[in-house]
Amino acid sequence: MVASVKIPPLIVLAGGLGTRLRSVVADKPKILAPIGQHPYLYHLITWAQRQGIEEMHFCLGYKANQVIDWLKSCSLDMSFSWQVEQQQLGTGGALVEALKHPMLAQRESVLVCNGDTFVDFSVAEFIAQARTHSAILTTSVVDAGRYGRILKDSTDQLVEFLEKDSQAGPGEINAGWYHFSGDNLASLRNSQITSLEKDFLMASSPQPLICVCIGQSFLDFGTPESYQAAQTLFKDAL
Question: Is the pLDDT of residue 16 over 80?
Answer without folding.
Answer: no
